[in-house]
Automatic annotation (TrEMBL):
The basal body constitutes a major portion of the flagellar organelle and consists of four rings (L,P,S, and M) mounted on a central rod. InterPro entries: Flag_FlgI (IPR001782). This is Flagellar P-ring protein. Its main location: other. GO terms for molecular function: structural molecule activity. The lineage of its organism: Bacteria, Pseudomonadati, Pseudomonadota, Alphaproteobacteria, Rhodobacterales. It comes from the Bacteria.
């Protein structure tokens, strides 16, 4: 009951904040056609580790890439046997931002793929980063900032965070630009992150009212097409600057999201519930094993025998006999009705599932 006392004020505060934030900028609701990032990936080597690198017998690919790097640097290692513990094979990932130009820098993430224990203090050697077309668009190099720590002794080992993964801020330099002439576009599509016909229609009307003519057209629930010629602006960039800060009121589907692992329940503003009666209780089964040793009398012919002994108990918690949840026309009324049941958040999840199955919860039910 104590846990639920703060749930109602929390939901009411959330509902109030949603009610106050009526409008959202278009740039926070859509993605502009052509304005997108590209994923990059590369395979490289981290050196300078303090004995926490790959065990080369378990990760032969580390030895192979190390040999290739040394060969390119003019060091002949053919036929040589080397087993350093200060290197680790890694995968390097990055995101090439839209309109990135040659010479600009992007952040990279470095992750071990062998049995290295930690990348702390390591340095990534020059690693080409490829896109989906197989072309090299950036080159990464720099000191890895690991996201954890590790300590080990003779009889114990402790690991905090993930020391086998790290980042290099501005660790990759762009070498090739994505060939895309944004200035030649005559139409731009606005793709809604949460497709909804009502929201798309409101975006269309807001843009047309801004330009005073029919420059935007909703094509489906997730797309609004913008005719750049009808905006009367000098370039597509000027058109986006003009429309991305237009405020509209998005329409969202009624949705209840629950996380069974943490017991978190989040409800949208438009959640509604019909009048329903709920009964809930718990059964607890306890089984205890208490074996007893029976010994023969002194100086008698016999042997000690272990006699099994089991205690089983089945109890039922009081729970909810049969409580009525009244019909709610607002989020605060729905929460007040559910909160009046006086159950724990995890039990509330089961109750919401049952209410949804009964057809009394009028919202999309999402379980994570």
């Amino acid at each position: 009951m104590t846990v639920l006392r703060w749930i109602l004020p929390l939901f009411v505060a959330l509902w109030a904040s949603i009610g106050n934030a009526q409008t959202v900028r278009i740039k926070d609701l859509v993605e502009f056609d052509g304005v997108r990032a590209n994923d990059l990936v590369g395979y490289g080597l981290v050196v300078g580790l303090n004995g926490t690198g790959d065990g080369l017998r378990n990760a032969p690919f580390t030895e192979e890439i190390m040999s290739n790097i040394l060969e390119r640097l003019g060091v002949n290692v053919t036929g040589e046997q080397f087993r350093p513990k200060n290197v680790a094979a890694v995968l390097v990932t990055a995101e090439l931002h839209a309109f990135s130009r040659s010479g600009s820098k992007v952040d990279v993430t470095v992750s071990a793929i062998g049995d290295a224990k930690s990348l702390l203090g390591g340095t990534l050697i020059m690693t080409p980063l490829n896109a989906a077309d197989g072309q090299i668009y950036a080159v990464a190099q720099g000191t890895v900032i690991a996201g954890g720590a590790e300590a080990e002794g003779d009889a114990a080992r402790i690991v905090k965070g993930v020391p086998t993964s790290g980042v290099i801020p501005a660790g990759a330099r762009v070498e090739r630009e994505v060939e895309f002439d944004f200035t030649q576009m005559t139409r731009i599509r606005l793709a809604l992150r949460e497709p909804d016909f009502t929201t798309a229609n409101r975006i269309e009307r807001a843009i047309n009212q801004t330009f005073g003519r029919r420059a935007a057209l909703m094509t489906d629930a997730g797309t609004v097409a913008l005719d750049l010629g009808k905006t009367g602006l000098a370039s597509p960039a000027h058109a986006i600057v003009r429309i991305e800060n237009i405020a509209v009121q998005p329409q969202q589907r009624a949705r209840v999201v629950v996380d069974q692992r943490s017991g978190t329940i989040v409800m949208g503003e438009d959640v509604r519930i019909s009048r329903v009666a709920v009964s809930q209780g718990n059964l607890t089964l306890r089984i205890e094993e208490a074996p007893q040793a029976v010994q023969p009398n002194p100086f008698s012919d016999g042997e000690t025998v272990v006699v099994p002994r089991t205690n089983a108990d089945l109890t039922e918690d009081p729970g909810i006999s049969l409580a009525e949840v009244p019909e709610g026309t607002s989020l605060s009324e729905v929460v007040a009705g559910l909160n009046a049941l006086g159950v724990r958040p995890r039990d509330m999840i089961d109750i919401l599932k049952s209410i949804k199955a009964a057809g009394a919860l009028h919202a999309e039910f999402v379980v994570r």
